Amino acid sequence: MxxxxxxxxxxxxxxxxxxxxSEETWGEALGRxxxxxxxxxxxxxxxxxxxxxxxxxxxDDFAVAMPVFDPWWSLITATYGHLDxxxxxxNATMVAVAGGLISLYSSAIRFHLFFLTTGVxxxxxQVYIADAFGTSLAVIGASGSAFALGGYIIGxxxxxxxxxxxxxxxxxxxxxxxxxxxxxIWMSPPGTAFGSHFVGVLLGLIAGRLHLLRTR
Length: 216
Prior knowledge:
Elements: E1 14-17, E2 20-23, H1 26-32, H2 34-52, H3 74-80, H4 85-103, H5 108-132, H6 143-156, H7 171-187, H8 194-210
Antiparallel strand pairs: 1-2
Helix pairs in contact: 2-4, 3-5, 4-6, 4-7, 5-6, 5-8, 6-7, 6-8
Transmembrane segments: 88-106, 136-157, 169-188, 194-212
Main location: membrane
Protein name: Rhomboid family protein
């Protein structure tokens, strides 16, 4: 019978000061953590958007809509910005749980590239899906990226055939992930772009099976 293996997290890094090695503090480690950095960016972009409208949602240019590259930077702000605090908290929950697990075994650059890429592709897909059905909409929020992180964990879970593969997560991680996903959906505002969620999960599943974020 196959068994599941969970890799050990890497220890805190050591730095050299005056010829002597010193362990990195927890504060420094948190500052370097890509999940903490991502949550900070999400909060900053969201607050910037709210401030620009006096707390009445976000500017139109912050969201992705047809034509999707006008302006081009909306692809970035739409990945990190949110309509309100409830929207931000719902996605931050998923990012913190799923991203926290993945960041233990990935690099910051891979994490950030994955987060931004899946977010952009999810938003663009949602806009084109709506357009195909004759509906015009604007998409904003990190839900596509958040569900891509969740899909990555599910996709990388060991099966009986590949239980020895490193970088896999066990069933407990999946249960925690499903709970976080439920909270995210429950707290999502009306008009949530569930097409973006689906695309995010699909991208995450593929990346998870390939263990693309695994570096250690």
